[in-house]
């Protein structure tokens, strides 16, 4: 009997999710309606964040975060080469010059050391960095306390790319457990609701932040730079009637914004998924623990990615590092043999500095940590619909392929 194909990741949609979407379709609002505010409020509450602002996707959210921090043409932004291209593209859209940060070769995370190295390269080039994007890759928390200390000393503002890290916690400088996303050390934290992420809204994204003014700026930029808040209207003549009341039709476009809004339908799905976050997080933690345990007992030459002390990760992905060459195998042959046995894999990620667009923009560069990680990394099936038996099957299949 052929066994079902296990992809590296996929969404889980329940009957409640379907019902929530159907109800949103029946409401008079398909675009910005009550579900948008409900999802944003619930998201902020879940994380303990002061503000949550939804976006059409996380790339849009990160773009607007860069703009809100004043990134403009010619400014330098530090971005992680080991991440999805969007972690860097967001700053390129704003016209920034990119200085890539390397990563730890085992975890793939930017470290205080790789952050400082990139900041110093930017200083030496006479272009000190204004902003840095720090990714919590795979859902493991970067050392944001250490990185923030180095950033503060240099006046660099931080954006956390937390697209993989919904539900992950870390320990702050006072020894308190904090959710990634409270923005204790950063201006913004971004989330993605793409289908393979921890929760999905189809496409979708969110920014969290602490500062009310920044929340207002990104909220305006998300919707054409238009505000309907009478308190901030600039053109009093046009804005107010003879009694000093705001004209009922009136709005102001005060900045060059975008249409980066998320629909009510998507927010209904996101909200329904968020309501199950406790269950999703505990299944993801249990799946990671089972994989770690099976690999530890297997004697296979597979390196699992550790969680830093003081952190509790809710993983988005389950990558391992394998020295294929030591087994006389190419990674392509390894992937193809797993695929033939019904196991899907993916490589997260090709380092951004190696992507042809960035090679042609900045020339060929080398980042040892990222290239070591990239050579060995492979993401294995990881989503809440996976059973314990499925996970054992993945590990057994790897044993057979490497034998
Ligand atoms: C680390 C990271 N940042 C940003 C993004 C962009 O997210 P979205 O697809 O919602 O634009 C992704 C999506 O894959 C991601 O993995």
Please explain how this structure is put together:
A seven-stranded mixed sheet has the order 1-9-8-5-4-2-3, with helices on both faces. By secondary structure, the chain is α/β, with parallel strands linked by helices. It is built from 14 helices and 14 strands. The mean pLDDT is 97. The longest helix has 22 residues. It is 39% helix and 15% strand. It folds into two domains: 260 residues, 3-Layer(aba) Sandwich (Aspartate Aminotransferase, domain 2), CATH 3.40.640; 126 residues, Aspartate Aminotransferase, domain 1 (Alpha-Beta Complex). The chain binds pyridoxal-5'-phosphate. The site of pyridoxal-5'-phosphate has 14 residues, from helix 3 and helix 4.
Taking Cα atoms only, what radius of gyration do you get, to the nearest Å?
Answer: 22 Å
| Small molecules bound in the structure, each named once | pyridoxal-5'-phosphate
CATH class group of the largest domain: Alpha Beta
Give the number of helices. Answer: 14
Q: What number of structural domains do the residues give?
A: 2
Strand order in the largest sheet: 1-9-8-5-4-2-3
Which structural class is indicated by helix and strand composition?
A: alpha/beta
Number of strands: 14
Shape: globular
State the fourth-level CATH superfamily of the largest domain.
Answer: Type I PLP-dependent aspartate aminotransferase-like (Major domain)
Listing every helix as H and every strand as E from the N terminus to the C terminus, the arrangement reads: HHEHEHEHEHEEEEEHEHEHHEEHHHEH
Q: Are there runs of 5+ residues with pLDDT below 50, and where? A: none
């Amino acid at each position: 009997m052929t066994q079902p194909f296990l992809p590296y990741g996929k969404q889980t949609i329940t009957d409640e999710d379907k019902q929530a979407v159907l109800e949103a379709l029946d409401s008079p609002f398909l675009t910005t309606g009550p579900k948008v505010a409900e999802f944003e409020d619930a998201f902020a509450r879940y994380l303990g964040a002061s503000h949550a602002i939804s976006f059409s996707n996380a790339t849009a959210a990160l773009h607007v975060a860069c703009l809100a921090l004043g990134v403009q043409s010619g400014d330098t932004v530090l971005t992680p080469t080991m991440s999805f291209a969007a972690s860097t593209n967001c700053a390129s859209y704003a016209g920034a010059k990119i200085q890539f940060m390397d990563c730890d070769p085992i975890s793939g995370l930017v470290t205080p050391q790789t952050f400082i190295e990139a900041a110093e390269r930017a200083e030496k080039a006479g272009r000190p960095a204004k902003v840095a994007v720090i990714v919590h890759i795979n859902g493991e928390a970067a050392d944001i306390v250490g990185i923030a200390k180095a950033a503060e000393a240099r006046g660099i503002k931080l954006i956390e790319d937390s697209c993989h890290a919904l539900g992950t916690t870390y320990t702050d400088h006072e020894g308190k457990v904090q959710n990634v996303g409270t923005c204790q050390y950063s201006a913004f934290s971004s989330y993605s609701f793409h289908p393979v992420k921890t929760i999905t809204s189809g496409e979708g994204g969110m920014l969290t932040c602490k500062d009310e003014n920044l929340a207002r700026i990104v909220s305006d930029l998300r919707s054409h730079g238009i505000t309907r808040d009478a308190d901030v209207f600039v053109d009093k003549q046009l804005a107010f009637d003879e009694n000093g009341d705001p004209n009922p039709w009136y709005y102001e476009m005060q900045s060059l914004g975008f249409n980066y809004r998320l629909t009510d339908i998507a927010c209904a799905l996101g909200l329904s998924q968020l309501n199950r976050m406790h269950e999703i997080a505990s299944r993801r933690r249990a799946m990671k623990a089972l994989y770690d345990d099976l690999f530890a007992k297997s004697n296979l030459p597979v390196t699992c990615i550790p969680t830093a002390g003081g952190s509790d990760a809710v993983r988005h992905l389950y990558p391992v590092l394998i020295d294929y060459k030591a087994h006389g195998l190419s990674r392509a042959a390894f992937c193809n043999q797993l695929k033939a046995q019904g196991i899907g894999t993916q490589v997260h990620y090709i380092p951004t500095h190696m992507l042809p667009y960035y090679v042609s923009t900045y020339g060929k560069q080398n980042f040892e940590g990222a290239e070591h990680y990239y050579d060995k990394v492979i993401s294995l099936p990881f989503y809440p619909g996976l059973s314990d038996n499925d996970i054992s099957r993945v590990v057994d299949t790897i044993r057979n392929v490497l034998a």
